[in-house]
Amino acid sequence: MENGDYEVPENANEHCPGPQSESAGKSDACEGCPNQEACATAPKGPDPDLVTIAERMATVKHKILVLSGKGGVGKSTVSAQLSFSLAAMGFQVGLLDIDICGPSIPKMLGLEGQEIHQSNLGWSPVYVDSNLGVMSIGFMLPNPDDAVIWRGPRKNGIIKQFLKDVYWGELDFLVVDAPPGTSDEHISIVQFLQATGIDGAMIVTTPQQVSLIDVRKEVSFCKKVGLPVLGVVENMSGLCQPMSDLKFLNVTETGEQRDMTEWVLQYMREKVPEMLNLVAFSEVFDTSAGGGAKMCRDMGVPFLGKVPLDPRLGKAAEEGRSCFDDGKCGMSAPALKTIIEKLLSELKVSRPEILEDGA
């Protein structure tokens, strides 16, 4: 990417060289542009804010972007649970939500209604625990139902402000939850962080081709901007539920539903109690094309693993809590744990040594 590719004004002429270019306001492409005079007289050179961002990020050891080319694949859920898990391991973790138009991270971390506070060091993150801080535009909305209707430059501006004005302190990990796609927010976060060293991107997909078509574009985006792909997670990889959690229906020809759950469960208790220990699995999405694993083989990127569609994980996200705490997410938590261990191995990061009380 050239320097001018990042922040071209929305009303610029085609083939705009970019306001930071030495030819800004002077090239043939600038003739008749409403920004011509401003670009010609504006100071040129590196963005001074990048120096401030580099200083802020100097205390952050690892920076991971969580991306997906497709919306609705559970990217924010993965970001939230990754952050919960890393914090539970004893790491100092920050979670930055740059999904400006759909900030769901406050809900998923149990922080709805919280506000950002200013200190002499900058904006303070909102903390779940002492070692897990969160920043999101969701904390800045007077009403959670308010729509954020912003054009690209304003989105870029708030992302830059998050990076240069938020005081995270010493962090082992900064997890960045990005919106779906490969647009302004993605270009900006890569540009702003590239000089500070990004470990790479964790990409989330679901198994079906409708998702993989878009996720392939996300992988291509990462390769074009020089962002390492740490691995791909296939989320919602089949519906897994304990038999005791299932609901059983008798459906008539007219579509009328009669709940038979208690009758079925009672029958199993009496006749085949061992069935109650089984897990029911069904394919929700078409996986005949090979899913995320085949895409990774085709594109030469690591495959981190599969996470089943687990209603209990969905409930944990709705309630803003970790899926690892109480053992209720028996289907998804072990899968996520394995994926996170692979991610740490990919980054060559060891768990911190946590001293026992009194040690």
Please give the structural blueprint.
Elements (H helix, E strand, L loop, with lengths): L35 H6 L6 H10 L2 E8 L7 H14 L4 E5 L7 H4 L8 E3 L2 E3 L1 E4 L2 E5 L15 H14 L5 E7 L6 H11 L5 E6 L3 H16 L4 E6 L4 E4 L6 E3 L5 E3 L1 H11 L7 E4 L8 H9 L3 E4 L4 H8 L13 H16 L12
> What is the 3D shape?
elongated
- Percent range for β-strand residues: 15-25%
Fraction of residues in H or I helices: 25-40%
Which secondary-structure class do the elements indicate? alpha/beta
- Which residue ranges are poorly predicted, with pLDDT under 50 across at least 5 consecutive positions? 1-6, 355-359
Following the backbone from N to C, one meets helices and strands in this order, namely: HHEHEHEEEEHEHEHEEEEHEHEHH
Number of strands: 14
| Number of helical elements | 11
Q: Give the strand line-up of the largest sheet.
A: 5-6-2-7-1-8-9-14
Average residue-wise pLDDT: 90
Radius of gyration based on Cα positions = 24 Å
Largest sheet: 8 strands, mixed
Termini gap: 52 Å
Describe, in plain words, how this protein is organized in 3D.
The protein has helices at 36-41, 48-57, 75-88, 105-108, 152-165, 184-194, 209-224, 261-271, 291-299, 311-318, 332-347; strands at 60-67, 93-97, 117-119, 122-124, 126-129, 132-136, 171-177, 200-205, 229-234, 239-242, 249-251, 257-259, 279-282, 303-306. Strand 8 (200-205), helix 7 and strand 9 (229-234) form a beta-alpha-beta unit. Helices cover 33% and strands 18% of the residues. It has 359 residues and is an alpha/beta fold. It has an eight-stranded mixed β-sheet with strand order 5-6-2-7-1-8-9-14, sandwiched between helices. It has a two-stranded antiparallel ribbon with strand order 3-4. A two-stranded antiparallel sheet has the order 10-13. Helix 2 (48-57) crosses helix 5, helix 5 runs parallel beside helix 6 and helix 7 runs parallel beside helix 9 (291-299). The chain is elongated and about 85 Å long.
